[in-house]
Amino acid sequence: MTSATAPGKIILFGEHAVVYGRPAIAVPVVQVRATATITDAPPASGCLLIAQDIGEEVRLADAAVNHPLALVLRLALAAAGISHEPDWRVVLTSDIPIASGLGSGAAISAALVRATLNHARQPAPPETVSRLVFRSEELFHGTPSGIDNTVIAYERPLWFVKGQPPQSFAVGQPFTLAIADSGIPSPTKESVGAVRAAWQADPAAYESLFDRIADIVHGARRAIADGNLAALGALMNANQQRLQELGVSSPALEKLIAAARRAGAAGAKLSGGGLGGNVIALVDGETAERVQTDLLAAGAKRVIVTRIGDV
Ligand code: MEV
Description:
Blueprint: E1 2-13, E2 24-40, E3 48-51, E4 56-59, H1 68-79, E5 88-94, H2 104-119, H3 126-140, H4 147-154, E6 158-160, E7 175-181, H5 188-201, H6 203-226, H7 229-246, H8 251-262, E8 267-271, E9 278-283, H9 288-297, E10 302-308
Parallel strand pairs: 3-5
Antiparallel strand pairs: 1-2, 2-5, 2-6, 3-4, 7-9, 7-10, 8-9
Helix pairs in contact: 1-2, 1-3, 2-3, 3-4, 5-6, 6-7, 8-9
Bound molecules: (R)-mevalonate.
Protein backbone atom coordinates (compact mmCIF):
# COMPACT_ATOMS: atom_id res chain seq x y z
CA MET A 1 0.00 0.00 0.00
CA THR A 2 1.21 3.53 -0.78
CA SER A 3 -0.20 6.68 0.72
CA ALA A 4 0.71 10.26 -0.15
CA THR A 5 -0.71 13.58 0.93
CA ALA A 6 -0.71 17.25 -0.11
CA PRO A 7 -1.69 20.34 1.89
CA GLY A 8 -4.15 23.15 1.25
CA LYS A 9 -2.91 26.63 0.39
CA ILE A 10 -3.76 30.27 0.71
CA ILE A 11 -2.65 33.27 -1.31
CA LEU A 12 -1.34 35.94 1.07
CA PHE A 13 -0.90 38.69 -1.49
CA GLY A 14 -1.27 39.21 -5.23
CA GLU A 15 -4.09 36.89 -6.36
CA HIS A 16 -5.49 37.67 -9.82
CA ALA A 17 -2.65 40.10 -10.66
CA VAL A 18 -0.39 37.00 -10.63
CA VAL A 19 -2.30 35.68 -13.67
CA TYR A 20 -1.02 38.81 -15.50
CA GLY A 21 2.65 38.34 -14.65
CA ARG A 22 2.81 40.21 -11.33
CA PRO A 23 4.34 38.54 -8.24
CA ALA A 24 2.31 36.87 -5.50
CA ILE A 25 2.99 35.32 -2.11
CA ALA A 26 1.41 31.99 -1.15
CA VAL A 27 1.73 29.64 1.81
CA PRO A 28 0.72 26.02 2.40
CA VAL A 29 -1.98 25.29 4.98
CA VAL A 30 -0.82 22.05 6.55
CA GLN A 31 -3.79 21.69 8.94
CA VAL A 32 -5.90 20.42 6.04
CA ARG A 33 -4.73 17.77 3.58
CA ALA A 34 -5.75 15.60 0.66
CA THR A 35 -4.68 11.93 0.71
CA ALA A 36 -4.31 9.35 -2.05
CA THR A 37 -3.90 5.67 -1.17
CA ILE A 38 -3.04 3.01 -3.71
CA THR A 39 -3.33 -0.74 -3.09
CA ASP A 40 -2.63 -3.52 -5.55
CA ALA A 41 -5.78 -5.24 -6.81
CA PRO A 42 -6.12 -8.81 -8.17
CA PRO A 43 -4.48 -9.39 -11.58
CA ALA A 44 -6.53 -8.22 -14.59
CA SER A 45 -9.03 -6.37 -12.36
CA GLY A 46 -7.99 -2.98 -13.77
CA CYS A 47 -7.69 0.35 -12.04
CA LEU A 48 -10.52 1.66 -9.87
CA LEU A 49 -10.50 5.31 -8.84
CA ILE A 50 -12.58 6.14 -5.77
CA ALA A 51 -13.19 9.75 -4.68
CA GLN A 52 -14.65 8.96 -1.29
CA ASP A 53 -15.79 12.46 -0.25
CA ILE A 54 -17.91 12.99 -3.35
CA GLY A 55 -19.09 9.37 -3.55
CA GLU A 56 -17.59 8.87 -6.98
CA GLU A 57 -16.18 5.60 -8.29
CA VAL A 58 -14.85 5.21 -11.81
CA ARG A 59 -12.86 2.58 -13.69
CA LEU A 60 -9.89 4.19 -15.39
CA ALA A 61 -10.67 2.26 -18.59
CA ASP A 62 -14.23 3.69 -18.67
CA ALA A 63 -13.42 7.27 -17.61
CA ALA A 64 -13.91 10.00 -20.21
CA VAL A 65 -10.77 11.61 -21.66
CA ASN A 66 -11.53 14.79 -19.73
CA HIS A 67 -12.48 13.18 -16.41
CA PRO A 68 -10.43 15.39 -14.05
CA LEU A 69 -9.05 12.69 -11.73
CA ALA A 70 -8.59 10.10 -14.47
CA LEU A 71 -6.71 12.69 -16.47
CA VAL A 72 -4.30 13.38 -13.60
CA LEU A 73 -3.82 9.65 -13.03
CA ARG A 74 -3.11 9.06 -16.73
CA LEU A 75 -0.55 11.89 -16.73
CA ALA A 76 1.10 10.48 -13.60
CA LEU A 77 1.18 6.93 -14.99
CA ALA A 78 2.83 8.20 -18.18
CA ALA A 79 5.39 10.12 -16.09
CA ALA A 80 6.05 6.92 -14.12
CA GLY A 81 6.70 5.05 -17.39
CA ILE A 82 3.61 2.83 -16.98
CA SER A 83 1.95 2.41 -20.37
CA HIS A 84 -0.62 -0.29 -19.45
CA GLU A 85 -3.54 0.10 -17.04
CA PRO A 86 -2.29 -1.15 -13.66
CA ASP A 87 -4.37 -3.35 -11.34
CA TRP A 88 -4.80 -0.74 -8.61
CA ARG A 89 -7.43 0.49 -6.21
CA VAL A 90 -6.88 4.25 -5.77
CA VAL A 91 -8.75 5.96 -2.92
CA LEU A 92 -8.84 9.75 -2.60
CA THR A 93 -9.95 11.60 0.53
CA SER A 94 -9.61 15.20 1.62
CA ASP A 95 -10.53 17.45 4.51
CA ILE A 96 -9.92 20.57 2.43
CA PRO A 97 -13.25 22.32 1.78
CA ILE A 98 -14.09 22.18 -1.95
CA ALA A 99 -14.15 25.43 -3.99
CA SER A 100 -13.21 27.50 -0.95
CA GLY A 101 -9.96 29.01 -2.19
CA LEU A 102 -7.84 26.51 -0.26
CA GLY A 103 -6.71 24.64 -3.37
CA SER A 104 -8.68 21.43 -2.77
CA GLY A 105 -8.58 20.33 -6.44
CA ALA A 106 -4.85 20.96 -6.83
CA ALA A 107 -4.13 19.20 -3.51
CA ILE A 108 -6.10 16.07 -4.50
CA SER A 109 -4.27 16.03 -7.83
CA ALA A 110 -0.89 16.50 -6.11
CA ALA A 111 -1.59 13.66 -3.66
CA LEU A 112 -2.64 11.43 -6.58
CA VAL A 113 0.50 12.24 -8.59
CA ARG A 114 2.74 11.62 -5.56
CA ALA A 115 1.07 8.32 -4.67
CA THR A 116 1.26 7.12 -8.30
CA LEU A 117 4.95 7.93 -8.64
CA ASN A 118 5.75 6.48 -5.20
CA HIS A 119 3.78 3.29 -5.89
CA ALA A 120 5.68 2.91 -9.16
CA ARG A 121 8.92 3.47 -7.17
CA GLN A 122 9.72 6.61 -9.13
CA PRO A 123 10.97 9.86 -7.60
CA ALA A 124 8.31 12.55 -7.05
CA PRO A 125 10.23 15.84 -6.80
CA PRO A 126 8.07 18.98 -6.28
CA GLU A 127 8.81 20.33 -9.77
CA THR A 128 7.44 17.13 -11.37
CA VAL A 129 4.36 17.07 -9.12
CA SER A 130 3.76 20.77 -9.78
CA ARG A 131 4.14 20.39 -13.55
CA LEU A 132 1.69 17.47 -13.78
CA VAL A 133 -0.91 19.15 -11.56
CA PHE A 134 -0.60 22.33 -13.63
CA ARG A 135 -1.55 20.39 -16.78
CA SER A 136 -4.88 19.46 -15.19
CA GLU A 137 -5.38 22.94 -13.71
CA GLU A 138 -4.98 24.39 -17.20
CA LEU A 139 -7.68 22.13 -18.56
CA PHE A 140 -10.18 22.81 -15.80
CA HIS A 141 -9.45 26.30 -14.53
CA GLY A 142 -9.08 28.38 -17.66
CA THR A 143 -5.92 30.47 -17.39
CA PRO A 144 -4.23 29.63 -14.07
CA SER A 145 -0.98 31.31 -13.13
CA GLY A 146 0.43 28.08 -11.69
CA ILE A 147 0.70 29.42 -8.14
CA ASP A 148 -1.71 26.88 -6.58
CA ASN A 149 0.00 23.75 -7.91
CA THR A 150 3.42 25.24 -7.11
CA VAL A 151 2.84 26.09 -3.43
CA ILE A 152 1.01 22.80 -2.85
CA ALA A 153 3.76 20.74 -4.49
CA TYR A 154 6.63 22.59 -2.73
CA GLU A 155 4.82 22.79 0.64
CA ARG A 156 6.59 25.96 1.72
CA PRO A 157 5.92 29.71 1.66
CA LEU A 158 6.72 30.97 -1.83
CA TRP A 159 7.31 34.13 -3.82
CA PHE A 160 5.84 33.30 -7.20
CA VAL A 161 6.01 34.87 -10.65
CA LYS A 162 4.29 33.02 -13.51
CA GLY A 163 6.73 31.07 -15.67
CA GLN A 164 9.65 31.48 -13.24
CA PRO A 165 11.02 29.03 -10.66
CA PRO A 166 9.43 29.78 -7.26
CA GLN A 167 11.56 31.51 -4.63
CA SER A 168 11.61 31.19 -0.86
CA PHE A 169 11.53 34.40 1.16
CA ALA A 170 12.79 35.52 4.55
CA VAL A 171 10.38 35.68 7.50
CA GLY A 172 11.77 38.11 10.12
CA GLN A 173 9.18 37.15 12.70
CA PRO A 174 6.66 34.28 12.51
CA PHE A 175 3.07 35.49 12.23
CA THR A 176 -0.39 34.03 12.68
CA LEU A 177 -3.35 34.06 10.31
CA ALA A 178 -6.97 33.22 10.92
CA ILE A 179 -8.48 31.71 7.76
CA ALA A 180 -12.26 31.98 7.68
CA ASP A 181 -14.38 30.01 5.21
CA SER A 182 -17.40 32.04 4.05
CA GLY A 183 -19.10 28.79 3.06
CA ILE A 184 -19.89 30.34 -0.31
CA PRO A 185 -18.41 28.23 -3.13
CA SER A 186 -15.86 30.12 -5.19
CA PRO A 187 -14.86 28.26 -8.34
CA THR A 188 -11.59 29.94 -9.36
CA LYS A 189 -12.49 29.58 -13.03
CA GLU A 190 -15.43 31.96 -12.59
CA SER A 191 -13.60 34.77 -10.80
CA VAL A 192 -10.56 34.47 -13.09
CA GLY A 193 -12.92 34.55 -16.10
CA ALA A 194 -14.73 37.63 -14.75
CA VAL A 195 -11.46 39.50 -14.23
CA ARG A 196 -10.31 38.50 -17.73
CA ALA A 197 -13.52 39.86 -19.29
CA ALA A 198 -13.14 43.13 -17.36
CA TRP A 199 -9.45 43.39 -18.34
CA GLN A 200 -10.33 42.83 -22.00
CA ALA A 201 -12.95 45.59 -21.80
CA ASP A 202 -10.55 48.10 -20.21
CA PRO A 203 -6.94 46.85 -20.35
CA ALA A 204 -5.33 50.15 -19.30
CA ALA A 205 -7.34 50.45 -16.07
CA TYR A 206 -6.75 46.80 -15.13
CA GLU A 207 -3.03 46.84 -15.96
CA SER A 208 -2.67 49.85 -13.68
CA LEU A 209 -4.59 48.04 -10.90
CA PHE A 210 -2.31 45.01 -11.33
CA ASP A 211 0.74 47.30 -11.06
CA ARG A 212 -0.59 48.77 -7.82
CA ILE A 213 -1.13 45.25 -6.48
CA ALA A 214 2.45 44.35 -7.49
CA ASP A 215 3.74 47.32 -5.41
CA ILE A 216 1.77 45.99 -2.42
CA VAL A 217 3.22 42.48 -2.89
CA HIS A 218 6.78 43.86 -2.97
CA GLY A 219 6.01 45.90 0.16
CA ALA A 220 4.63 42.76 1.84
CA ARG A 221 7.82 40.84 1.12
CA ARG A 222 9.82 43.62 2.83
CA ALA A 223 7.41 43.78 5.79
CA ILE A 224 7.60 39.98 6.23
CA ALA A 225 11.42 40.05 6.07
CA ASP A 226 11.54 42.92 8.61
CA GLY A 227 8.97 41.27 10.90
CA ASN A 228 6.93 44.49 10.65
CA LEU A 229 3.47 43.07 11.34
CA ALA A 230 1.72 46.46 11.58
CA ALA A 231 2.91 47.26 8.05
CA LEU A 232 1.93 43.78 6.91
CA GLY A 233 -1.63 44.24 8.20
CA ALA A 234 -1.94 47.63 6.50
CA LEU A 235 -0.75 46.04 3.24
CA MET A 236 -3.39 43.30 3.54
CA ASN A 237 -6.03 46.02 3.84
CA ALA A 238 -4.57 47.86 0.84
CA ASN A 239 -4.57 44.64 -1.21
CA GLN A 240 -8.22 44.06 -0.25
CA GLN A 241 -9.10 47.55 -1.49
CA ARG A 242 -7.59 46.73 -4.89
CA LEU A 243 -9.36 43.34 -4.98
CA GLN A 244 -12.61 45.16 -4.38
CA GLU A 245 -11.78 47.43 -7.33
CA LEU A 246 -11.10 44.31 -9.43
CA GLY A 247 -14.66 43.23 -8.64
CA VAL A 248 -13.88 39.96 -6.84
CA SER A 249 -15.03 40.85 -3.32
CA SER A 250 -18.63 40.40 -2.16
CA PRO A 251 -20.89 41.65 0.65
CA ALA A 252 -20.42 38.37 2.57
CA LEU A 253 -16.63 38.61 2.33
CA GLU A 254 -16.70 42.31 3.29
CA LYS A 255 -18.77 41.43 6.36
CA LEU A 256 -16.19 38.88 7.51
CA ILE A 257 -13.30 41.27 6.80
CA ALA A 258 -14.97 44.08 8.75
CA ALA A 259 -15.68 41.71 11.68
CA ALA A 260 -12.04 40.59 11.79
CA ARG A 261 -10.73 44.17 11.73
CA ARG A 262 -13.20 45.29 14.44
CA ALA A 263 -12.10 42.36 16.59
CA GLY A 264 -8.50 43.60 16.45
CA ALA A 265 -6.95 41.93 13.40
CA ALA A 266 -4.03 44.00 12.11
CA GLY A 267 -5.34 43.48 8.57
CA ALA A 268 -7.73 41.31 6.59
CA LYS A 269 -8.45 40.43 2.99
CA LEU A 270 -10.03 37.83 0.80
CA SER A 271 -7.70 35.07 -0.35
CA GLY A 272 -7.70 33.27 -3.71
CA GLY A 273 -10.26 33.80 -6.42
CA GLY A 274 -12.80 35.66 -4.26
CA LEU A 275 -16.56 36.13 -4.83
CA GLY A 276 -16.79 33.53 -2.04
CA GLY A 277 -14.22 31.24 -0.47
CA ASN A 278 -11.93 32.41 2.31
CA VAL A 279 -10.84 35.58 4.02
CA ILE A 280 -7.58 35.78 5.97
CA ALA A 281 -6.89 37.98 8.99
CA LEU A 282 -3.54 38.81 10.63
CA VAL A 283 -3.85 38.06 14.34
CA ASP A 284 -1.60 37.67 17.38
CA GLY A 285 -1.73 36.00 20.78
CA GLU A 286 -4.03 38.72 22.10
CA THR A 287 -6.46 39.01 19.18
CA ALA A 288 -6.63 35.45 17.79
CA GLU A 289 -9.45 34.19 19.98
CA ARG A 290 -11.71 37.23 19.65
CA VAL A 291 -11.16 37.43 15.88
CA GLN A 292 -12.02 33.75 15.58
CA THR A 293 -15.20 34.13 17.67
CA ASP A 294 -16.33 37.23 15.81
CA LEU A 295 -15.66 35.69 12.40
CA LEU A 296 -17.89 32.75 13.32
CA ALA A 297 -20.55 35.16 14.63
CA ALA A 298 -20.34 37.09 11.33
CA GLY A 299 -21.17 33.93 9.37
CA ALA A 300 -17.88 32.06 8.84
CA LYS A 301 -18.49 28.32 8.58
CA ARG A 302 -15.07 27.38 9.92
CA VAL A 303 -11.91 29.17 11.03
CA ILE A 304 -8.41 27.68 10.80
CA VAL A 305 -5.56 29.38 12.64
CA THR A 306 -2.14 28.84 11.07
CA ARG A 307 1.39 30.09 11.81
CA ILE A 308 3.70 31.25 9.04
CA GLY A 309 7.47 31.23 9.40
CA ASP A 310 7.96 28.66 12.15
CA VAL A 311 10.75 26.31 11.19
C1 MEV B 1 -6.25 31.28 -7.08
O1 MEV B 1 -5.78 30.62 -5.90
C2 MEV B 1 -5.34 32.43 -7.41
C3 MEV B 1 -5.74 33.23 -8.65
O2 MEV B 1 -4.76 34.26 -8.78
C4 MEV B 1 -5.76 32.36 -9.89
C5 MEV B 1 -4.39 31.91 -10.35
O3 MEV B 1 -3.37 32.49 -9.96
O4 MEV B 1 -4.34 30.96 -11.14
C6 MEV B 1 -7.10 33.88 -8.48
